Structure formats: C-alpha cells, structure tokens
Amino acid sequence: MTISRIGTPEQLRDPNYLPPLWSAVPLGIQHVLAMFVANVTPAIIVAGAAGFGFGSNSADFPEMLYLIQMSMLFAGVATLFQTVTIGRVGAALPIVQGTSFAFIPIMIPLVAGKGVDGLAALFTGVLIGGLFHAALGTVIGRIRFALPPLVTGLVVLMIGLALVKVGIEYAAGGVPLKAQGSEAYGSWASWSAALVVIVVTLGLKFFARGMLSISAVLVGIAAGYVYCLLTGKLPVGAITGSWSQAAAFALPMPFRYGWEISFAAIIGFCLMAFVSAVETVGDVSGITKGGAGREATDREIEGATYADGFGTAVAGVFGGLPNTSFSQNVGLIAMTGVMSRHVVTIGAVFLILCGLVPKIGGLIRTIPIEVLGGGVIVMFGMVVAAGISMLSDVIWNRRNMVIFAVALSVGLGLQLEAMGTAPGGVDALQHLPETLRVLGASGILPAALIAIVLNLVLPQELAAEATEEVSGGLSGHGAGLRDR
C-alpha cells in the first residue's frame, strides 16, 4: 500500500480527509489492535483484586466478562467523542481513547477483597472524577506549570512500580494460587507460558516491521494462548463453554452495581485526573507534530481534555473504568503518516461493536492468567520506562534531586509497606481515617503531592553541601547532573 494510492501528502496531513474505504477500514482496525490488550487489562486486574477474577472460583466470576465488555464499549464511545466531537467536547483529531493504567493503583485498594460489593463506590468515583476531569478542560493551559516533567515523570514511574508486582504474580499463576499456598504457584508450567509471550513479543518488537511490530504484545499473547492449548494447560472445553455461555448481544446497564459515595474514591480519581489530563496534552501535541508537523491549538487541547473527562464519566455510569488517550497510537500515526480522524472513527465503531458482543469478552476471559502475565510484564515495564524517559527531560540539579528523593522515598515506602501487610494486619497508616489510609497506601498520590508542593515552594538554588550532606557523596557528578 503506497501513500500515493491513499492520498496526497496534503490530504494525509488533514484530519478531515477520509482515505478510500479499502484502506481506511484496515487502518482503523490497526489502531484498535495496537491498544486492545492494554485496554482490557485494567478490568481484569480490578476483578482479580476484588476477588472474582481468574482462578477465584467466585460466584461473581461472570462479572469480569461485563467489565471487559464495558472496557471495549466505552473506549469506543470516548474515541468517538474525540474524533466526531460534540460541541466543544473532542479535539477533532485521530485520538484513540482507552482504559487508563494510571488509576489502577488507586482502584486496587478501593476494591481489594470486597467482591462485587466494592464496585459501587468505585464506579461512583469514576463518574465524579470524570466530571472533574472534564472541568479541567477550562483551565488545563493555566495549571500545566504545576506539573513539569519532574512531577509527571515521577508519577508515571510510581504507577509502573506499583504494577510490576501484578505482572509477576500473574505470570507465576495468579493471586488465588498464591493465597492458597499451592505448589502450582511459580511452577515451570506457569512460567513457561509467560516466557513464550515475552520471547515472541520481544522478537516481533525488535525484528519485525509494520503491524507485526506494533501489535507485538497482542501477537505474543496469541502465541502463549496457542502454547497453553497445545500443552493442555487450557482445555478446549473451557473455550467452547465460555463461548456458548456468553450472549451474542447485550446492552450496558446503567448503575448496574449501585451508587455509593466514598471520599477516598472521589479524591483519588480527581487527583489522578490531573495526571491523565497532562498525559492527554502530551499525546495531542505528539499527534499534531508527528502527523501534521505543527503545534496543537488551545482549542484542540481543551477539547481533548473535555472528551477525556466526559468519556470517563459516561463509562462510570455503565460500569466502565477511567479513559485516557493511548500514547501508542501517537507513534502509529507518525509511522503511517495518516492524520485522518475518520480512520480512527472506524476503529471506534469496531470497538463499540466488540463491546456489544459478550462472546468476545467470553473468549478474552479464557486467556490463562500466566499468558496475560507475560503480556503485562512487558506493558508495565514500559510504563516504568516511560516515566524514566519523561524524567530525562528534567534538569538534574541538586534542588530537583532532593525533591525527587523525598517524594520517591515517601511514596514508594508507603506503597511497599502497604503491599507487605497481611489483610487485617497493622500498617504505618492504621491511625489515619480510612479515606486518607486508602489514598496514602497507593503511594502515588503522596509522592505527587510532595513533588508538586516542594517544586512550587523550594528556592531554585540549593547549596552544594546541602545535598552532599544527605547523599553520602553520591549527589551526582556527571555532566548531566550538575547545576545548570
């Protein structure tokens, strides 16, 4: 497929241009495949944390199918907000929306061990947090100063560090097996399935080209799935049973899990909305630069933020998780050179159709947890790498090193301490009100708040000896770490 057959260079840089359908349809589906696994993974993780996910033998296990279905459906709806637009909602750009990893460390403490009963507060928080996120569209340009790369990079790094443990637990056989003390946990049968996914993913990412490289994680998971079929780890009967039990068509149900006000959920989702909004600003800028060779306009940034928020709020009503723009599709646009928002609209319609067909979710839930673990090890590791990449833009003078050190030490320390505490046991935050305890246990919000406050109040200059005193002479003496 050559560019000359799709359109002229000027047409390809125009968001309003629609290429011929024979090329627009596969290009649109390509956008969906690039984000498909990452989009449904948060729903699977939340179900597992709540206690009705993979291997739980819970009577509520079918509810995971509904969460997967809503992830697909409302990723498509939120994407339509961005591409088709409704008034000032939407950037009218080829922005693909999907379920955000950023909120997972906030959601896990909210639902941990509560089963379906924990979802009412969760989705009420998603709804209110989404409306707050939309409101940020009116001020996003004026608050960006408070979220420099030092803060945003730290937050993304913390998100990744909070998630990597999940990937290892999945690859080893899942939390239920671990809780039972089963000898099957961490067995070669589990690790081999995860390793197949990792090896295939890395091989395609580095040695393949085009769509195979872009969808490496998806193909890797498919390879792991086939491996489990061939080794008998995944019985064919489990697939046919899940397919036959799932409906061919189903509509979402508003407030399926009820309504419950939880200040921990509301505060957590509202604060993380800042991070998601800044991520979207970066994605919009990346799309306009990579696809059209220009800077994003204020109108596009505001519209994208509105769509982020309203897409999340609507998802919360029906049992969908928070949405944000998906960065991997920025690179896809830069690679294809096709800036058409209508191409992404086709992908959004495909996602919506998938969300309305529970049989697709029924197949997804048959993926062995070890296979999913191999995929998320790669994805969550990339979240950490993305945070480090963002931090590379920081001027690493002594002031910024101290801010980063204090924020990371408190945030990661609280996170690790909470993870190491058995259910019902005492922890470092046990004397705080429940709302603050849940927020503090994530580690992300304390780290972000400390970094923001210190960045705003500390003087720009810090004496050299002030850093040496607390770093044991390891304050950094490379050219990139000196005061500039």
What is this structure's SSE topology?
Elements: H1 3-6, H2 9-12, H3 21-50, H4 62-83, E1 97-99, H5 104-111, H6 119-135, H7 140-143, H8 149-172, H9 175-180, H10 188-207, H11 211-214, H12 216-231, H13 236-245, H14 263-292, H15 298-318, E2 323-325, H16 328-336, H17 341-355, H18 358-364, H19 369-391, H20 398-419, H21 434-442, H22 444-457, H23 464-471
Antiparallel strand pairs: 1-2
Structure commentary:
This protein is globular. The longest helix is centred in the first third of the chain and has 30 residues, at 21-50. Strands 1-2 form a two-stranded antiparallel sheet. It is built from 23 helices and two strands. The protein has 484 residues and is mostly helical.
Low-pLDDT residue spans: 470-475, 477-484
Mean pLDDT equals 85
What is the CA–CA distance across the termini? 48 Å
- Percent of residues in beta strands: under 5%
- Derived from helix and strand composition plus strand pairing, the structural class reads mainly alpha
Strand order of the largest sheet: 1-2
Tell me how many strands there are: 2
Main sheet properties = 2 strands, antiparallel
What is the count of DSSP helices, taking H or I runs of 4+ residues?
23
Order of SSEs, N→C? HHHHEHHHHHHHHHHHEHHHHHHHH
Shape: globular
Q: What's the gyration radius in Å?
A: 22 Å
Helical content band: 55-70%
